[in-house]
Amino acid sequence: MKFEIKHLPQKLDDVVFADAVVAQTLNEYANNMRDKSLLLYGPKGSGKSVSAQIVLKTMMGAAAQPGLTDPLHANSFAEKHGSFDLVLQTWSAQLMMGAKHGCVIFDELDQFTLAMQNKFRSFIDCYQSGYVIATTNNLHLIDGPLQDRFRCLFVEYPSVLQWVPRVIQVMRSENIELTTEQAACLLNNFEGSGRKLNDWLEDYILSIKARTAATGGDLSIAPLTITKQASTLGTANKGGQPCQN
After folding, report:
1. Same domain membership, residue 176 and residue 233
2. Rounded Cα distance, 34 and 154, in Å
C-alpha cells in the first residue's frame, strides 16, 4: 500500500487544522448541524479535499454508498454535463437511503467557466433538497455572487507544533515511538502541506529503518537515536541545523 494512502486521515480528528474554528465548523457539518453550501479555500495540500470527503461520508452514515459520495471534479464535470441534473439525482438517491440532507463535493470549483458558475449559482438558488461542499486553491477565480451562496472557510497550513501529534501518530504506526520533543525535533526546518509532510516522514522512516536494520537495532527501544538520525538527515536534505536531544 502506498505510504500516503496508508496514512490518509480517516476521521476529522486525524486531520490537523491551523484554526480551531475550521475544525469546529467542519464537525458541525459532519453532524448535520449546518446545511448551507460550504466552500473550503486555501493553499494546496492544506487538507481541503480530504476534509470534504470525511465530512460527507460522516454525515451520510449508512447512505455513504459507492457512487453517492464520490467527489466531482469541476473541469471534468463541465466537459460531460451542461446541467446539474446529476447533482439532483445524487441528492435524491442519498435522501432515499436515509440521509438527512443531500450533498455532493465539487473539487477545484474555480475550474468552472464563468458561464458554468452562473448556471451553478442559479441551480443552488432553485433547489433546496441538498447542498454542495466545494474546494478551491484560487478563490479569486470564483465569481463573487457564487461565493455568496457558500459559507466560505479558509483552510491554512498548520504550524510545525500543530503537526507534532500527527507525526507521533504516523511514527507510532510504523513502530517508532517518539516523545513530543523528539517529534518537534524531527520537524526541524519543515514547511508546507500535509502532502509534503507525508514525503518528509516517509524519507525519515525509510532511512531510519535501513540504518536500524544495518546495526541490528530495535525501532521500539531507540527513539533518541532515531530522532538524532532524523535530524541529521533533515540537515543534509534541507540545509538546517540538527536538533540536540
Report:
1. yes
2. 17
The answer to whether position 8 is within a domain reads no
Q: Measured between alpha carbons, how far is 45 from 27 in angstroms, rounded to an integer?
A: 20
Render pLDDT for 138-170 as a digit per residue (tens, 0 to 9): 999 999 999 999 999 999 999 989 999 999 999
Question: Which is nearest to 222 in space by CA: 175, 154, 158?
Answer: 175
Range of the structural domain that residue 94 is part of? 17-154
C-alpha cell at position 6: 496508508
Q: Which domain-ending residue is among 115, 138, 154?
A: 154
Confidence (pLDDT) at 224: 47
**What's phi and psi for 214, nearest 5 deg?**
-65, -30
Looking at the fold, whether 47 and 118 belong to one and the same domain comes out as yes
pTM above 0.90, yes or no: no
* Interval 194-221: pLDDT, tens: 889 999 899 888 888 888 777 766 655 4
